[in-house]
Model the fold of this input.
Amino acid sequence: GAGVSQSPSNKVTEKGKDVELRCDPISGHTALYWYRQRLGQGLEFLIYFQGNSAPDKSGLPSDRFSAERTGESVSTLTIQRTQQEDSAVYLCASSLTPTVNTEAFFGQGTRLTVV
Amino acid sequence: GQQLNQSPQSMFIQEGEDVSMNCTSSSIFNTWLWYKQEPGEGPVLLIALYKAGELTSNGRLTAQFGITRKDSFLNISASIPSDVGIYFCGVKSGTYKYIFGTGTRLKVLA
Done:
């Protein structure tokens, strides 16, 4: 596609439920990132995928968070047993194979509200 | 951990004024990026800087990559109401991880 596409745009869920967020990267982009943005805050790194390499999961805040990506296509971020503190905008970004001179391009985000 | 400090945190300016914001780090980085985020949208890349001392323009925007590789600034000339948003600086840490500042929130008064 022309840009990074995320779905849903908005998600309201009850505390304790599981949610799945989807990201469609730009075609040809081998690298994919998930970031979290709490209200009024900056961008917090969650996880990075590069091709078929093992992902960098160092930013995942707890074992309730997991993400998958098959090859160089769609990624899903799953949050189990959601808590109110999980409320945030979840941003996905993709880039060409990372070198010094590559940039990340973001989707519009999924706004998650846990009630 | 590594941290980027952006200043100011927020600013209100009159339409037509020039704006300047900056981003500093205690560590050296070789790639500096500036993004703008509008309400309800994801960040959009404005300018990418790859060489220390580099000065790059994009329309009314000008950004510089500091010679020490520990800072960058973004200038907006002759601001207009649609410049409103949050401006994030970002750096590439290592080969792939992007780190972002907490943003400068800009509001333009017509």
